[in-house]
Amino acid sequence: xxxxxxxxxxxxxxxxxxxxxGGSILFxxxxxxxxxxxxxxxxxxxxxxxxxxxxxxYEWHANFLGLLSYHATPNYNPVSDYDLPSDxxxxxxxxxxxxxxxxxxxxxxxxxxxxxYWPTFERVGVVTGNWLFRMGSxxxxxxxxxxxxxxxxxxxxxxxxxxxxxxxxxxFILGAIGFLDT
Length: 182
What we know:
Elements: H1 3-26, H2 29-32, H3 35-71, H4 87-116, H5 122-153, H6 159-181
Helix pairs in contact: 1-3, 3-4, 4-5, 5-6
């Protein structure tokens, strides 16, 4: 992935996070009594959800292109078994595709759940939105646990990096559990 793409994806996550925080504040009962502020909160949730979904779709697409590049090489005639992609490489692509698919499903559930909160849908929308957020949080939790176990099964990380990654994944897991509890 190029530095520009990585920066764009990271920026999308940061802006999406800020939108979620703003939406969460506007969902507080003090603010949500005003219909305009409530709609602004829902709009921020929708924007945040889409900004989380776009990088997930990009990653999912890139993982599929990476896997297809092994099978779509023109005039590829392996001379021996050593010329074939190793099981490790194919397994790693499979893991990446699975994780990015989980992230895409999570993004879709959060986006639809955010839309369901719009006041037009009334009580049915709130209940639907709550359940879609819970399902999306379950996928987030699954994805974080998956990434956590994969990261620490690889031995090339330094001790300090492992500690930093533990904190990072632990925060995501707590956030997902927090959504499941609502």
